[in-house]
Amino acid sequence: MAISDMRRQYAMGTLEEASLTAHPITLFSRWLDEAIAAGIPDPTAMTVASVDATGQPSQRIVLLKDVGEQGFVFYTNLGSRKARELSSNPKVSLHFPWFFMERQVRICGTASKLSLKQNAEYFFSRPKDSQLAAFASRQSQPISSRQLLLTQFAQLKQKFADRTLPVPDFWGGFLVAPHQIEFWQGGEDRLHDRFEYNKDAQGNWSTQRLMP
Question: What are the residue boundaries of the Pyridoxine 5'-phosphate oxidase dimerisation C-terminal domain, all occurrences included (predicted)?
Answer without folding.
Answer: 171-212
